[in-house]
Design a protein that fits this description.
alpha+beta; 2 strands; globular; two-stranded antiparallel ribbon
Length: 97
């Protein structure tokens, strides 16, 4: 399983703003619940397979030197594992607590 914590919205921003009732683009998808609200993802899609129909088009390649890791947040075990990946300096990533 993969938990998407945040994304930087590039398209469909007007619809995301309506779904989230916010005008601040930075706050549209800055957490798992906000991401789901903005994208219209509900619990009815839970456990649906995505491997067959999932694709990301025209995504720019990110140099490995720009990707960093940190401990996951909000967990009590496995805190030593650096399984939180994000792009350094991206303003759409929520800060560590």
């Amino acid at each position: 399983a993969v938990l998407i914590r945040a994304v930087e919205p590039l398209e469909g921003i007007a619809l995301m703003k309506r779904r989230r009732s916010t005008a601040l683009v930075r706050n549209l998808c800055s957490g798992p619940a906000k991401f789901c609200q903005a994208f219209g993802i509900t619990s009815s899609q839970n456990k649906n397979p995505i491997a067959d129909d999932f694709a990301i088009y025209d995504a720019p390649e990110i140099p490995k030197s720009n990707i960093t890791t940190s401990p996951r947040v909000g967990i009590s075990s496995g805190t030593e594992l650096l399984w939180r990946f994000y792009i350094k300096g991206n303003p759409f990533v929520s800060p560590m607590r």
